[in-house]
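hey m, so remember when u said the tokens were messed up on ur end? i reran from scratch. heres the input so u can diff it against urs
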Amino acid sequence: METMQDFMDQIDASTKNLKRGDLVEGVVIQTGDDHIIADIHYAQDGVIYEDELVNSPADYGQDDKVHLVVIGFSGDGQVVLSEKKAQRSRGEALLKEAEEKGTFVEATLKAAVKGGYRVDVCGIEGYLPFSLYQRDYLNDPAVHVGEKTLLAIEKSDNRGYVFTRMPIANKLFEESKAAFYAKYKVGDRVEGVQVAYNKGGVVVDVAGMRGFIPNSEVSYSRSVKVQDVIAKGARLSLIIRELNAEKNQLILSYKETKQDPWQNIEADLEVGDVFELKPRGENQNLYFYELLEGVEGSLLKKKVPAEVIESGADHCVIVVAIDKDRQRVELDYYFEIDDQFEQDDTAAGSTLGDLFGEQLKKLKFD
């Protein structure tokens, strides 16, 4: 219920003199095709034409509050107002305060342009580089267009404002980091997403934390390519191997989520098994062969025939010993025995009687 004081205040407001540049608050009382009418608590209502509105006239509803600035008067005394200029004045004041005090301003990400976002702070446009939006690489900038976010001023000059979101991004990261390291420990299973490859392994994102899978932890096999095991953008189940909050270190294993091939080696490999294959690697004295995925055997180089080495043909090796505890397989070179060799071998094993029996019968002894 209005009091007498409220009534007197309305009379004072309606009789005060307005001039260009005055900031007023209005309430929408009517909308038209190209304008809106607002009650500004003055003797005359105010009109705001479409060119001076922040939005289309159709976007305003009855009793909406609008911040306005006086830009002129019509012939019949109606006050002509601008919402855009009022917004810009407010934006200039906010930016001046933010620059002086290091505070934040709310901005709208208007569009993704070359290298960054075009942003709007109360009608004042600026630029936000993608590199200053978040800590990690921004994969799809368009996803955030239209969002509102808090920004700080990185720099300003006669060309305009450059903003940064890094203070906010760093604060959010530290909060997430503290929660992550408090929740998980070595040996825990976590979910991650592949984000990059490098020479040493695979970079993954785990709940906003940057993690790393060394090549040795991708697969039990040493001969496979990392990209053949972990696809780009793949979602992975991983085991935490190392966790160090001070060093921001998160080392993970993918292969530990799979069965160790040595666990049931007896069922997959036996002494006497023969393989034809090329060496996976070598050192000064030994060749190394991947017999099964993640299971290697070694063979002395001197046991491989020179002609096999020179020809580049597959090596034919046979398993002679399996040491499960030490995870080692000893190999020997396997020579195939053909029919001719078997016949020669039979002849070599015959007795003198078998070979010269008839001739011996003819011999006479004194």
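this time it looks ok to me. The helical segments are 4-15, 83-101, 166-183, 226-229, 265-268, 306-311, 339-348, 352-361. if urs says something different then somethings off w ur setup not the seq
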